[in-house]
Amino acid sequence: MLKAVILIGGPQKGTRFRPLSFEVPKPLFPVAGVPMLQHHIEACSKLPNMKEILLIGFYQPNEEINRFLSCAQQDFKISIRYLQEYAALGTGGGIYHFRDQILSGSPEAFFVMNADVCSEFPLPEMLDFQKEHGDAYSFVILGTTANRKQSLNYGCIVENEQTDEVLHYVEKPSTFVSDIINCGIYLFTPEIFQHIGTVFQKNQQDMLLEEQSNGWHRAEVIRLEQDIFTALAGQGKLYVYKTDRFWSQIKSAGSAIYASRLYLNQYHTTHPERLATNREGGPKTRGKCFMSERALYAGLLMHFFYFILGNVYIHPTANIDPTAVLGPNVSIGTGVTIGAGVRVRESIILHGATLQDHSCVLNSIVGWGSTIGKWARVEGTPSDPNPNDPYAKIDSETLFRDGKLTPSITILGCNVNIPSEVIILNSIVLPHKDLNRSFKNQIIL
C-alpha cells in the first residue's frame, strides 16, 4: 500500500504570488486550466496501490479548499484529506506532526511532494528505482540537472555516479557544489520518521539549554532539506533518481505561465480533450491546430477561420468571438468573454474576465472578473528560461532591481477595469482598481 503527502504551505507575508493569492490559495490557482494541486493528485491516483492522499499545510479550511477536496475525491475515486498545521512547521515538521495519520494502515512507502512544483511526476519510475537498490530502508530524492549558475538557487546533490547514492547535500550553497538539484519530490519509507524524530529530540534538548525560549513549538520546526538530507547524505540511505523530463518551480506569477506551457504541451499525450482546436464559426475544445501565425495573417485560411495557434485550453463555458486569435500557451477560464478581433498570447485569463473587441493581451494574467476595454493593450515581459540552454530553469524573480520594478509579466488582480485604448505594460495592478490612463513598469496600489 502507498500513500502520498502534498505539502501545500500557507499564507505568508511578502509572497511573490500576490495579488493573485489574495483571492485563492496558491495551490488552487489554475495552471493549464485546472488547479495546480490537481496535477499532483492525478499523478498519484494513477499508481495502482495508492490508497490515500494527504494535504498538509496551515491554510484555514475554507469553502474553496473543501469544494476542491470534494470534487477531487469524486473525480479520482481516492481518499483525499487536508490536515491543518497549527503553525508553519517546515517541510519535515509537518509530516512528523501528522505521522500517525500517514502511517495509518501501514503503508510500505509514501511520496512527499511540494505543491509549488510542476512536473511530469515520474512516480512509477521512482518506485522501480527504489526496488532496484534492494534496500527497503532507503529513501529517494527526485533530481534534475540545472546549469551551474542557477544551481545555487536550489538544494544541490553530490552523487556516486555508479550507485546514485547521495554523498553530499547542500541547500542553496554560496558556491558551486553540483548541477544536480532537488526537485522537491521524495519517496520515503516509514523509517524516515526515526531520523526526523532524532532531529526533534535534539531541538528539544537545545531549547532546554537556552536561557530564553521563544515558544514550545519551535522544536517541531524541522526542514527536510537542511536538517534531514544533510545528515543522511553519505550514510548509504539516501539516493537520487535523476529525470530529464520537464520540471519547474512555481514561485511567482510569471512561473505560472511557464508551468502552464509545460502542462499544455503534455496534454497531447495525457489529455488531448483539454486542448482547443478550430472549427468553422468558433472554437472547439479538442485537438490542436498547427497553422502558423504567418499563414493566418497571410489569409491562407480559405473559407475556414482558424484562430487557435499552438496549445490552448478553453473552458466550455467561455464565450469567444470566432474572429479572436488565441495562442500559443493560453488558458481561458470559466465564464470568460472574449470579443471580436481580440489577440491573446502566452497568458492566463481567469474566471469571469471580459476582453472587449480588438483588445490585446500578451504575457499577462488577467484576474477574476476584470475587464479590458476596446483596443486596450495589456502586455508583460516573459521571464522564461534561456531556450538555448537545455538545463536552464526559470529564474527566481526579484520584484525590484536597482530601485526599479523588474520587467516581468503584467498581473491584473480581480475586478480591475482597463479603459479603452489604454496600454498597461510590465505592471502589477492590485484588485478593484478602475484605471483612467496608461501605466508602464508600475505597481498600482
From TrEMBL:
Residues 3-203 form the Nucleotidyl transferase domain. Keywords: GTP-binding, Nucleotide-binding, Nucleotidyltransferase, Transferase. Pathway: Nucleotide-sugar biosynthesis; GDP-alpha-D-mannose biosynthesis; GDP-alpha-D-mannose from alpha-D-mannose 1-phosphate (GTP route): step 1/1. Belongs to the transferase hexapeptide repeat family. PANTHER family: SUGAR-1-PHOSPHATE GUANYL TRANSFERASE (PTHR22572). Signal peptide: none annotated. Residues 308-444 form the Mannose-1-phosphate guanyltransferase C-terminal domain. SUPFAM superfamilies: Nucleotide-diphospho-sugar transferases. GO terms for molecular function: GTP binding; nucleotidyltransferase activity. The gene is gmppaa. Transmembrane segments: none annotated. InterPro entries: GMPPB_C, Hexapep_transf_CS, Mannose-1P_guanyltransferase, NTP_transferase_dom, Nucleotide-diphossugar_trans. PROSITE patterns: HEXAPEP_TRANSFERASES. Pfam families: GMPPB_C, NTP_transferase. This is Mannose-1-phosphate guanyltransferase alpha-A. Regulatory subunit of the GMPPA-GMPPB mannose-1-phosphate guanylyltransferase complex; reduces the catalytic activity of GMPPB when part of the complex. Mediates allosteric feedback inhibition of GMPPB catalytic activity upon binding GDP-alpha-D-mannose. Together with GMPPB regulates GDP-alpha-D-mannose levels. One of two paralogs (gmppaa and gmppab) that may have redundant functions.
